[in-house]
Amino acid sequence: MLLVLISFLGIHYFLGVQTQTVSQSDAHVTVLEGDSVELRCKYSYSRTPYLFWYIQHHGHGLQFLLKYYSGDPVVRGTNGFEAEFNKSDSSFHLRKASVHWSDSAVYFCALSAQCLRLQGELITNL
């Protein structure tokens, strides 16, 4: 079975004189069920950013997959997804070792300059 994973989002944030940019070069990725996949995300920001991956299945809202804001550069998320923060390459690529048909969706990479924790919930300025 062929799976189509759509990687989509280019966002520019302007905070004072600081610009944040997120880009995903893979518009469409097609893989066979059981294959591995990598969705690329590059960012431009002079400080250490807060990075996120979201998934949106057809007809549904965005769902959070994973986030990075400090610590171990490899972040494990839900359903076998993981992403690796690479500051020297300014990247946060999403990977999965074995995709399933239910992984067919639109994937969003996002960046925030701030990340606040209140009562265990993640609040961002996206």
From TrEMBL:
**Name of the protein described by the UniProt record:** Ig-like domain-containing protein
This protein's species is Rattus norvegicus (Rat)
Q: Which Pfam families match?
A: V-set
Provide the alphabetized UniProt keywords: Adaptive immunity, Immunity, Immunoglobulin domain, Receptor, Signal, T cell receptor
Identify the residues that the record assigns to the Ig-like domain, covering every copy.
20-119
Q: Looking at the keywords, is Signal present? A: yes
InterPro entries assigned: Ig-like_dom, Ig-like_dom_sf, Ig-like_fold, Ig_sub, Ig_V-set, TCR_variable_region
Task: Fetch the Gene3D superfamilies from UniProt.
Answer: Immunoglobulins
Signal sequence range: 1-19
Q: Would the keyword Signal turn up in this protein's UniProt record?
A: yes
PROSITE patterns assigned? IG_LIKE (PS50835)
